[in-house]
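User: I'm writing a tutorial on reading structure tokens. Could you give me a worked example: one chain, its sequence, then its tokens, then a sentence or two explaining what the tokens reveal?
Assistant: Sure. Here is the example chain.
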Amino acid sequence: MNYPAEVGKEISFVLHNYKSIDNLIEKRREEILGTLNDGKDSWMKSKTQIYGHTIEDIIIRIDEDDRISRLLAWKKLLDDFFFNLYISDDYVLSSFCKLKYLQNKNDEQIHIALDLSSEEIKYLDVKIKSFIYDKAKRLYLYDETEVNKSASK
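And here are its predicted structure tokens:
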């Protein structure tokens, strides 16, 4: 299965940063919390803005934040992916994922550790990203019509 380049970049990002997703979520929450204004006019401003600066508004903003929701969906998808990979009998695929995405080893280090050619490494990388892309579409992380439009440009 093929996927658009921009999709491949996002999948690569979340795979390589899997262990940091919780930190990315927390950083985004802190950005939103940083908008909290403790000034005396905070309550008045909250009456005239869609999102004010009350604690309730900040909590709603965190709950409705698209970046946080997307990162949480990626976290769940990758938790399931790595768990299923861990319990699988596919030593090469699980070792490849561990080295490439969890330990961020380069292709040469993977070649030495697993005795894989560069073509095999590329094949496994595309295979994994295609599998994850398929799962991501099922979780509505990608709208296939939008992805197809951007891929045809």
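What the tokens reveal: The chain has a mean pLDDT of 85. The chain has one domain: 5-151.
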